[in-house]
Write a structure and sequence with these properties.
The protein is an alpha+beta fold. It has helices at about 5-20, 140-150, 160-165, 175-185, 195-215, and strands at about 25, 40-50, 50-55, 60-65, 70-75, 90-95, 100, 105-110, 260-265, 270-275, 280-285, 285-290. It has a 4-stranded antiparallel β-sheet, with helices on one face. It has a 4-stranded antiparallel β-sheet with strand order 2-3-4-8, with helices on one face. Helix 1 (about 5-20) runs parallel beside helix 5 (about 195-215) and helix 4 crosses helix 5. The longest helix is centred in the C-terminal third of the chain and has 19 residues, at about 195-215. The chain starts with a helix and ends in a 9-residue tail after the last strand.
Length: about 300
Amino acid sequence: MPEGDTIHRTANRLAAALAGRPLVRFEARRLVGSGPPPGTVIEAVEARGKHLLVRFVDGSELETHLRMTGSWHLYRPGERWRRAPATARAVLETADWVAVCFAAPDVVLRPPPRPGGPASRPAPTVAHLGPDLCAPGLTDADRAEIRRRIAGVPPAVPLVDVLLDQRVFCGVGNVYANELAHAVGLHPLTPAGAVPAATWDELIVSAHRLLRANVAGGPRRGGGVRAGRPGVPPLRSTDRPGRGRPPPPGHVLVPVVPAGAGRCTARPGRLKICSTFGLITQGSGPMVRGPGLRGSSM
């Protein structure tokens, strides 16, 4: 499913096209109840972790989670859609743009607050999320809250599972989780209790820096966005040994991990990066990937 930075980039594009503009049409055929009527102004489009929220001035709110199948498209009025209209879960049309959410499994429309009730309320599907590392400005309060949530994780839980747990901090997916583990020189299946506090701090700061760099747009950047850690420099895409180059200085060959969910092969005499763990192995046969690759759906 899309990583958090992809959802934030999508929200930024939708906000530039829709925010502050009145609706001409709102459709969400599978949802119960009526949506905001024509003329309702779209107040904001925001991302919270991997959830995308469209807020309207009347207090109603549309939330989508794209998971593995969903996507948002922007069209000009009258432009032909690139996907079948039958797969549209929500359509927001203004005078200048048509925003269509296709095939998203999770689409929720929350009505305006009741008269006399609270003016705003957190969406229940995002209230449990940890601090959003895709958001600008990682504050001391955010770091303290993340440390508090990490402290509540059982020590035997693998590092990769903690990085993917959106309740600890949100925005990190499979790609970033394994880049981050590689960047600090730890196997993704390292027990959380064996990770030093200083390394957790480094992981938090690096995850925020990496996600923010990619929210800005352009080709996705990997571990090279951060300063090299002594002995384990970040692996840049141009350094990848799978292209026939030797590993960068400071990288080491590691044993094949125990049998698990899948395989990726390397030709004899070549070096290969395992996309699951970011590990380098000698290409003398199949490399077996362990069970650390787990999707995060929260």
